[in-house]
Amino acid sequence: MRSDDEGADSVDTRLGLRLAELRAEHGWSLGELADRSGVSRSTLSRAERAEISPTASLLNRLCAVYGRTMSQLLSEVEAEPSPVVRAADQHLWRDHASGFVRRSVSPPHSALRGELVEARLSPGADIAYDRPPVAGLEQHIWVLEGALDVTSQDTGHHLGTGDCLRMRVWGPTRFRCAAPGGVRYLLAVVRP
After folding, report:
1. Looking at the structure, do residues 52 and 144 belong to the same domain, yes or no?
2. Per the structure, how many domains does the chain have?
3. Crossing angle of helices 30-37/56-66, nearest 10°?
4. How far apart are CA 127 and CA 55, in angstroms?
5. Which residues fall within 8 angstroms of residue 124, CB to CB, at 6 or more apart?
6. Reading across the β-sheet that carries 92-95, which strands appear in turn?
7. Are 114 and 28 in contact (CB under 8 A)?
8. Which of 2, 88, 106, 169 has the fewest CB atoms nearer than 10 Å to its CB?
């Protein structure tokens, strides 16, 4: 696994460039993207210039607008995909603001529909997504250590170690760490 700061600047720079490319491909101004995503023009501009490291919530909103999963977007700024990705080479992304750490376990490939992600939430972490990155996204959440509260479509689920939740995501979701020592879970994502 990479250290917390190893390559962080270059990933943020490549991510910013990719976000700017996506906006240009759609022919949108910053104002149009702000209207579509609900993110301010200044935040979008700062993210595209890599002046800020985007949060999980911000990336989720942009993924929803562009019809991508977060793994797809992040894989687009990584090196050419390989059929095998060694543990030491699995991309680690951190949202310091929310206490969310995300490790892309699956080798990235934009043509495949499924992917595995290892996720960690620090004690007290609470992340709310106002929309799915792709409507109808199928998620399987398997808690490896700790406890996690997941809310989807106004239905709450408390998951302990070993529990697995399968859901289709159509609206807002919320992930809250429900363990004093944090939670580690595997997220299997299948695009519709």
Report:
1. no
2. 2
3. 100
4. 10
5. 99, 177
6. 92-95, 100-104, 114-121, 183-190, 137-145, 164-169
7. no
8. 88
Q: Is residue 3 part of a domain?
A: no
Closest CA to 124 of 166, 178, 54: 178
Give tens-digit pLDDT for 135-171.
899 999 999 999 999 999 899 999 999 999 999 999 9
Assess whether 115 and 56 both reside in one domain.
no
Round to whole Å and give the CA distance between 133 and 184: 22
Which structure tokens are listed for 56? 């999980």
Take residue 108 and report the two structure tokens written for it: 């990235």
Amino acid, single-letter form, for residue 131: R
CA distances from 13 to 9, 51, 52, 185 (A): 6, 9, 10, 28
What residues are paired with 166 via a beta bridge? 140
* Token couple for 18: 């990719």
Tokens of 147: 């406890």
